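Input record, target 12 of the design panel.
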């Protein structure tokens, strides 16, 4: 069985209001523009996914709401508290659990965990997993085995360069 894991880092957030906690920070205009552009791209490729899991932070949910509206993605968004300031191990556990019932999964989160899980799954070294960066990786490995280096990168979109 082939599994597809889509990784999305939240779009660029605003630091304008110093009274907001890190969790509450919304997107800035560049973030809104990048999320919209990525949504248009995903719509153009007829993006489909079985399950969407997101950090509950304002900037991840706002990124996902814009992207979903533009790309016409109708999936329910499940927020997972542990995805905020997540560890690599936590994301791997989520991938294993969710792939028992789903063949494709979109994880919407933060760095450094998006960067770390991408590098772990693919063994590709990247300089940066940018804000609003989107990756598609796929693998056929047994979920009970190590997932280190089992995936190939099918798509990597840096909205600051490609869109």
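The sequence produced for target 12 reads:
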């Amino acid at each position: 069985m082939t599994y597809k894991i889509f990784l999305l880092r939240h779009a660029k957030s605003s630091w304008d209001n110093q009274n907001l906690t890190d969790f509450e920070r919304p997107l800035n205009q560049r973030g809104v523009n990048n999320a919209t552009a990525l949504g248009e791209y995903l719509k153009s490729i007829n993006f489909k996914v079985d399950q969407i899991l997101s950090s509950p932070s304002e900037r991840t949910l706002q990124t996902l709401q814009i992207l979903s509206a533009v790309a016409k993605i109708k999936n329910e968004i499940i927020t997972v508290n542990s995805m905020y300031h997540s560890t690599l191990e936590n994301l791997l556990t989520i991938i294993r659990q969710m792939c028992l019932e789903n063949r494709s999964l979109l994880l919407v989160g933060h760095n450094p965990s998006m960067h770390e899980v991408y590098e772990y799954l693919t063994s590709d070294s990247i300089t940066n997993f940018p804000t609003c960066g989107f990756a598609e990786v796929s693998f056929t490995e047994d979920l009970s085995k190590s997932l280190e280096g089992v995936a190939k990168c099918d798509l990597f979109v840096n909205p600051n360069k490609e869109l």
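The mean pLDDT is 97.
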